[in-house]
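User: Run a structure prediction on this.
Assistant: Running it now.
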Amino acid sequence: METSSEPLTFELAPYTDRPKKELPTTGIRGDVGRFGAVVVERCPSHRPQAKGMDTARLTGPAFPETVFRGKRRSGMPSLFGAELTLDGNPTDLRFNSRALRKEDRALRIAHEGREYVYSLEGLGKAKILEREGVRVSMQPGRFVPSAGTGTTGTATGPADTVDLAIAIVLEQVDTDVLTLGGAALSSPFALMQRFSDQAE
């Protein structure tokens, strides 16, 4: 697995494909420096057969296939009922939506001996993925008419494709609940989720 200690900066652009005979797809794509091309894809359409769940899938020649699945919210998967796998290997996800301090609300991800902390600096601000010695910052990038806002990423430390895949796939996940403001907006949704979970 290729690593480097040089800082890495990259741009990912939003896109939407609307094929005639298939469901539309949307997401982000671009080149991540020396690691090459990456695409994150999800379906913006409601699909009854998905039973309220949504999926974001990251692929790229140098990257592990990374799949995030969670309850649908705002047209994308959320952290509720979430699962994250890398090349089919599950990760452990934990977050406390009731915590008052930002550091206590952070999403904690454990994968093959690595411990990650993922946090938001605020709604519409940078999203940070950190493990010992590595930091990946994802900030809102350029606005693309009819497609949306892109993403500017910066990785410091010996970041590899696993670090980058996790940070990038989470760009297509509703993570607003990790902020107090987002949690306040999410509370009616969380209540509905609780009722739906009990009904299943």
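The longest helix spans residues 180-199.
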